[in-house]
Task: structure prediction
Amino acid sequence: MPPQDRSAGRTEESDGKALSTPPVRQVLSASVYENIKAMVMDHEIAPGARVGIDALSRTLGVSPTPVREALARLEADGLVVKRSLSGYRATELLTRRGLEELFEMRLLLEPRATALAATNATEEQLDAIERIMEEMRTLPGPTGRYADYRDFAALDQRFHDAIAAASHRPLLADAVERLHSHLHVFRLTSAKVAEDPTLAEHERVVRAILRRKSDRAAEAMTEHLTLSLQRQLRHESAS
Result:
């Protein structure tokens, strides 16, 4: 009987461990990211407050490494900022002027992206946009704490990003994606109504895209963004 190649067995075993390690680490990293994001969204970490890596590590019971990775992702989201010598801080809430400027940019970019999507979207992309809408219909709107509306907010972002991607203009799609960062904070403070109008506004956009009506699609997106801004400004005035 030929001798067993034990080194091969060890290689397979070690390879197996190597393959199993990244998913475990990815799950931990994602969990830490979501936990810290919830703290920022719910203002448990106050706007403008310092975000301590060591303190978060102790609070979450993890090493500093996944905390650093999470903060890097949150910086890309626009929810924290990193400053030399002082570390990370939670992003300040947008002022009224900042909110208006943010929507001004969205109104310049997204109606155009939506019109192009009505013309250029593939059947697969149209199906994907419809699936996002179907998922959104099953979820509660943006009320309560972040944990209650996290999935709705994520789908809302996917909806806008999917439309921009369907424009088949990569630079335009990238610009649209980068404009969502501060909106999640404002979702927490938006008016809490029994029937949020976001879905109905989205459905008008989707109907126009599916019918390949580029002008109507752009109008529907303009209407949605304008009404969304008005809702935010009403809340800002009332608070």
User: Anything to note?
Assistant: The chain has two domains: 6-90, 96-238. The mean pLDDT is 85.
